[in-house]
Structures are given as structure tokens and as C-alpha cells.
TrEMBL record, chain A:
Keywords: Membrane, Transmembrane, Transmembrane helix
Keyword Thylakoid: no
Native organism: Evansella alkalicola
One matching Pfam family: DMT_YdcZ
Annotated PANTHER family: INNER MEMBRANE PROTEIN YDCZ (PTHR34821), MEMBRANE PROTEIN (PTHR34821:SF3)
Superkingdom of this protein's organism: Bacteria
Transmembrane segments: 32-54, 66-86, 92-112, 124-142
Name under which the protein is recorded: DMT family transporter
InterPro entries: YdcZ (IPR006750)
UniProtKB/TrEMBL annotation, chain B:
Keyword Oxidoreductase on entry: no
InterPro entries: YdcZ
Positions of transmembrane segments: 32-53, 65-88, 94-116, 123-140
Signal peptide interval: none
Protein name per the record: DMT family transporter
Native source species: Evansella alkalicola
Keywords: Membrane, Transmembrane, Transmembrane helix
Pfam family, one: DMT_YdcZ
Length: 152, 141
């Protein structure tokens, strides 16, 4: 339980660091070239890791279920949808909706045990917890500004 | 309205990405799963780039080189996420991941790390973080 929480927390911290790195690239070029670069790096490092860990098995990859090859579409879907949403709604409003969808999807997934993952029954406190988290994000984002801006 | 639909889909895709990687890992192992999803994502993104041409390779020379390797963090991120999903479930994983992400972004902004503009701190932000942590505690009750 504790290990799972630590792993998730470390992942989240690195999502933010990766976002900073990706934005530095995106400042100089377009989002699709940036996305291509980011995913190519992820691929190269994952390939090396799978070989080093003795997991790599080409014949297994050729025999696996064919829909696995569509796995990467989700990552590209994230980039495309977020770019489109932020362009139309601005970052703050977009993020509130994105988080709601993200947590809502997670709750639905656990409750139904979709795609053969272990089913974790729905409980009312999960829904309440998610609503409080979303409320916390809205409070957190409320009135943020930069140090070098004049206060109004 | 279109913007809202894109934002909803984008959020669902973020969760789905973790779930799909966790599902594929059950079958072929986590490192191979990450290899496959990053490769197919790259092929799709690069095909779109080949059509829209929203940048030129020479743009990348203007980026300080360590930033070009941001994608490498994907390995650590997805490995941790998949392992967490398998031990504590999707809801708790995504909740904790999200909060750590927001808090880390806050630390980066507040300290001006990586040469970014410094963000002003105010009391409401601590109230917000407190609420998010309270939410996670309630989820696992």
C-alpha cells in the first residue's frame, strides 16, 4: 500500500519535471515535433531497459495481441486533446476539466474492472474524496501570479 | 463546447494511458509494454508531424541539450505508474500522482528552478494542497 503510494508520488513529481523539459523544447518548435522527440526518447530508453532487464523477446512481441500496437495512440490523444482544449478554453479552465475527467475515468475503471484489471468496488467515499481533490485544485489555482508582476 | 469535449477526452486519455500500459504489462512485462507504447506513439506523432510540419529539425539545436532528453523520464514515470496501479488500483494511483504532480510544479514555480519565472506564494495554495491530501485520505478510508 505505502509502496504503491510512493511510486505514484514519484511518478507525479517526474511528470512535472518532464513537462518543464518538454515546454523548453516546445518554446523553440511545434508541438508535433516536440511530441515526436519526447516519444522517441521514451522508446529508446525503454528498449535499452527491456534488453538490460532480460525482458526483451522479439518473438513474443510478434505474437502478442494485435491491439497492443494501438497502446501508443493514447499518448498522442493526450497531446492532441490538451493542445486543442487549451487553445479554446485557456490553461486554468482546461486543467480543471482535464482533472475531473482523469479522476472520473479512474473511478469508473476501478469500479467496472475494465480490460481485465482487478475490480475495486465503487464506494461513496471515493466519489467524495475525488470531489474534494478537484475542489482543492480549484482553490490552489485561484489567484496565482508571478513575483515580478505588479500586485493589483 | 468543443473545447470542453477536448478537455474531457484529454483527461480520460491520461488515465487510459496508465491503464493500457498496466494491461499490456500483465502479458509481456512492463519494460516491453513501455517500449511498444512509446514506439507506436512515436510513429503516430511523427506521421502527423510529417503532414503538418510544425517545426524544423534545426529548431532543436536552439534547445539546451539536456532538455532534449525529457522523454527519457517517461520510462520511470510509466514504470512507477503501472506498478502502482497493480498494487493500489487506478483511482488511488491517479489521485496521488496528480497531487504530487501539482505540488512538484508548485515547487518548481515557487523556486524558479530551470530558469522559469517565480510564482508568488499565497495562503490559498496551502489550503488547496491540504484539501487535495484530505481527498486522498478519504478515498482510501
Amino acid at each position: 500500500m505505502v509502496l504503491g503510494i510512493i511510486l505514484a508520488a514519484v511518478a507525479g513529481a517526474f511528470v512535472s519535471i518532464q513537462t518543464v523539459f518538454n515546454n523548453k523544447v516546445n518554446e523553440k518548435t511545434g508541438s508535433w515535433l516536440t511530441t515526436s522527440l519526447v516519444l522517441s526518447m521514451g522508446f529508446i530508453f525503454a528498449l535499452v531497459a527491456s534488453i538490460l532487464m532480460g525482458e526483451f523477446n522479439a518473438s513474443q512481441l510478434l505474437q502478442m495481441e494485435s491491439w497492443y500496437w494501438l497502446g501508443g495512440v493514447t499518448g498522442v490523444g493526450v497531446v492532441f486533446c490538451l493542445v486543442q482544449a487549451i487553445r479554446r478554453l485557456g490553461p486554468t479552465y482546461s486543467i480543471a476539466i482535464v482533472l475531473t475527467a482523469q479522476l472520473g475515468t479512474a473511478l469508473i475503471w476501478d469500479s467496472l474492472g475494465l480490460l481485465g484489471l482487478e475490480k475495486i468496488p465503487f464506494s461513496f467515499n471515493k466519489l467524495v474524496g475525488i470531489i474534494i481533490i478537484i475542489g482543492g485544485v480549484i482553490v490552489f489555482k485561484y489567484k496565482s501570479g508571478y513575483v515580478d508582476e505588479k500586485s493589483t | 463546447m468543443k473545447g470542453i469535449i477536448f478537455a474531457l477526452l484529454g483527461g480520460s486519455f491520461i488515465t487510459l494511458q496508465g491503464v493500457v500500459n498496466a494491461r499490456i504489462s500483465q502479458d509481456i512485462g512492463v519494460f516491453q509494454a513501455i517500449t511498444i507504447t512509446q514506439l507506436t506513439g512515436f510513429i503516430l506523432a511523427f506521421s502527423i508531424f510529417a503532414v503538418v510540419r510544425d517545426g524544423h529539425y534545426s529548431d532543436l539545436q536552439k534547445v539546451k541539450w539536456p532538455y532534449l532528453f525529457g522523454g527519457a523520464f517517461g520510462l520511470l514515470i510509466i514504470f512507477n505508474e503501472v506498478t502502482a496501479i497493480q498494487t493500489i488500483g487506478v483511482t488511488l494511483t491517479i489521485s496521488v500522482l496528480l497531487i504530487a504532480q501539482i505540488v512538484m510544479a508548485f515547487i518548481v514555480d515557487a523556486t524558479g528552478l530551470f530558469g522559469l519565472r517565480k510564482l508568488k506564494l499565497h495562503g490559498w495554495q496551502f489550503v488547496g494542497i491540504g484539501m487535495m491530501i484530505l481527498g486522498v485520505i478519504i478515498i482510501q478510508l
